Amino acid sequence: MLALFIWGALLVAQTLPNAAQIFVLHRFDDTRHPTTSISTVKLREVFTYLRENGYHVASLQELQEHLKSQKPLPPKWVLFSIDDSYKSFYTHGLPLFREFGYPFILAVYIEGSDQKYPDFMTIEELKDTMHYGELALHSYTHPHLTRLDDAQIDADTQKGLAWMQHHLAVTPRSYAYPYGEFDARVQKRIAAFGFEIIFNQNSGAVSHESNPLDIDRIALMQDTPFKTKLRQRFLKAQWNLVEIDPKSQQLQRIEISVDPTIKEVECYVSGGKWERLKVNAGKISHTFNTPLSKGRNRIILKTFDHQWSSKLIIL
Ligand SMILES: [Zn+2]
Fold first, then answer.
1. Fold of 18-232
2. How far apart are CA 139 and CA 92, in angstroms?
């Protein structure tokens, strides 16, 4: 029985493509903001683990080459991204990245630097950082993009890009949504600027089959069990239907297609708990009666072998 189980697990593992986990961090050693900060003690522990266990910390360029050519990723790839360009990254995070020689993507909240807000990096600090990692745009004003109309989204993005070109002489190839918030309309507007990679903040891993304009990231905070997160894989899922009752704003129904070899998934809806759903010939169809809350809601699917796919719903 045990042998059969192990053989089954091996078979599945062989057919799954490798996946990279892209971690997202915010502040470093900042005790004023414990929920969005990581200590450099913990980060050193993570970096040391990666180094001692044969992980490759990849650059965005390396990842993008695989996404473009649809070439499977090598095993044990990890990427790091940092959102908001807080000064604590420059003073506390960057020295550790430099010590380990690990590349990173720094998603810059432009207004913070442009207006010289004390908590954010200066132009000189951004320039210095560009020697070690790559910059992404994280908007000019850090708005809730789904609440803006098309012209407002365009104006914010244009302002951010113009600022980066003028002050840093760089046109970023990637964009990270403020608060990780987007919908199909927002994605289309941002993609129209020619970004080759767009980062969301839905937990999941990235394979060569991921959509470059919808790249999942895993939050890495002080209490994140990072070794568990390193097991996450990309779940190729087609979200065919997510039905929400417009009156009650309750989630009513989902219909999702996955690989037919998957027989069961676990599903989580924000505010609820994990529940097991059967998969019939690659189709998941489930009826809910779940009240969603104002703002960000997520529906997460995961398989027993750690493949993840999420859907963000903003009300
Ligand atoms: Zn942000």
1. TIM Barrel (3.20.20)
2. 23
Domain 238-314 belongs in CATH node 2.60.40.10: yes
Cα of 160 from ligand 1 centre, angstroms: 14
C-alpha of residue 5 to centroid of ligand 1, in Å: 43
Alpha carbon of 83 to ligand 1 centroid (Å): 5
Cα–Cα distance measured from residue 274 to residue 302, given in angstroms and rounded to the nearest whole number:
10
Burial environment of residue 118 by CB neighbours within 10 A (0 to 12, 13 to 18, 19 or more):
exposed
pLDDT band at residue 13 under the 50/70/90 scheme: very low
The pLDDT tens digits of the residues spanning 74-129 come to 999 999 999 999 999 999 999 999 999 999 999 999 999 999 999 999 999 999 99
Q: Where are the domains of the chain?
A: 18-232, 238-314
DSSP letters, 70-111, are TPPPPSSEEEEEEES-BHHIIIIIHHHHHHHT---EEEE-HH
